[in-house]
Design a protein that fits this description.
Helix content: 25-40%
Structural class: alpha/beta
Shape: elongated
Radius of gyration: 21 Å
Strand order of the largest sheet: 2-1-3-4-5
Number of strands: 7
Number of helices: 6
Largest sheet: 5 strands, parallel
Length: about 180
C-alpha cells in the first residue's frame, strides 16, 4: 500500500467526535478562544462541532439533546455548583476555559485551561515598550474591577515597576466617564 493510501485508510478509520463548544463569543476573549479551538481542529482533529453561544443554557441544551450524544465539551466556567455537578456526572471529557466558582469541583473527566492574567498585563507593557518611548502610561479598568482585570493590572504595574515607570490607573465608571481636556 502506498504511503498516501495508508494515510487515507487511517483517516477513514478515525471516529468523528461530536464536540459541543459552549463559549460566549460576543467578547474578544471568547472569539480568541474559539479561534484557537478551530486552529486545533484544522490541524487534523476529526471533530464535528456544535456551537452554543448561550453558555447559561448549556444544561438545558444537554438535557434536551437526547438524540445527540457528545464525545466531549469545551465550555466556559459553570455559573453554579449544580451546573458543574451535572457536567461532571456526564462521564465525558470536559474542558473548562475558565473557572471562577471555587465551590464547584472539577471531576476526573474535566480539565481546566486558564489564562495567566498577570502575564497578559506584563505582555501589554512589553508590547507597548516595543513601539517606542511614552511620556505617560495609563491602565484603564472597569468600575467593577473583575478578578482578571485586577490580575492584569498587577502584571502591568509590576512590569512598569521593573522599568522604573509609574503608571496612572484610571477606573472607567460608565456612570461618570472621564473628562478629556
Amino acid at each position: 500500500m502506498s504511503p498516501m493510501n495508508n494515510s487515507i485508510s487511517k483517516r477513514k478509520r478515525t471516529k468523528v467526535r461530536n464536540v459541543l463548544i459552549a463559549i460566549n463569543i460576543t467578547g474578544a476573549s471568547g472569539r480568541d478562544c474559539l479561534s484557537g479551538i478551530l486552529q486545533q481542529i484544522q490541524s487534523g482533529m476529526q471533530w464535528q462541532i456544535h456551537l452554543l453561544n448561550d453558555i447559561d443554557s448549556i444544561i438545558e441544551t444537554l438535557k434536551n439533546a437526547k438524540e445527540m450524544t457528545f464525545d466531549g465539551i469545551i465550555t466556559e466556567k459553570p455559573s453554579l455548583k449544580q451546573s458543574a455537578d451535572y457536567l461532571n456526572s456526564l462521564g465525558i471529557p470536559i474542558v473548562f476555559t475558565d473557572y471562577h466558582d471555587e465551590s464547584a469541583e472539577l471531576g476526573e473527566n474535566c480539565s481546566l485551561v486558564q489564562l495567566d492574567d498577570v502575564a497578559i498585563g506584563a505582555e501589554a507593557v512589553r508590547f507597548l515598550c516595543s513601539l517606542g518611548h511614552f511620556n505617560s502610561w495609563v491602565f484603564a479598568t472597569t468600575a467593577a474591577k473583575s478578578k482578571f482585570s485586577k490580575l492584569r493590572e498587577i502584571g502591568f504595574r509590576e512590569a512598569l515597576h521593573k522599568k522604573e515607570i509609574s503608571p496612572t490607573i484610571l477606573s472607567m465608571d460608565p456612570e461618570r466617564p472621564p473628562k478629556l481636556s
